[in-house]
Design brief:
This protein is mainly alpha-helical. Helices cover 39% and strands 8% of the residues. It has a two-stranded antiparallel sheet with strand order 1-2.
Length: 76
């Protein structure tokens, strides 16, 4: 990196504090281990999630397979 370029700064996803994107920061893009762990906890408890259809549980999958197998047997 040349002397004229400023290092890349990003906002911490947890607290919005400015963070220099650098190999010297093992918690990047977070500003600290605390923010990193808070974010991980939010994903783990479901506070944060990716929008979309809810995943089927194992019981629903088994029922779907049984219905499909019965449908195949009825058509034979």
């Amino acid at each position: 990196m040349s002397q004229t370029q400023r290092p890349l700064e990003v906002a911490c996803p947890q607290c919005s504090k400015k963070v220099v994107w650098s190999e010297k920061n093992p918690d990047r893009p977070f500003c600290s281990e605390r923010c990193r762990l808070l974010d991980l906890g939010a994903w783990a408890d479901g506070t944060r999630r990716i929008a979309g259809e809810p995943a089927m549980d194992e019981t629903e999958i088994d029922e779907m397979i049984m219905r499909a197998e019965r449908g195949l047997q009825d058509s034979e």
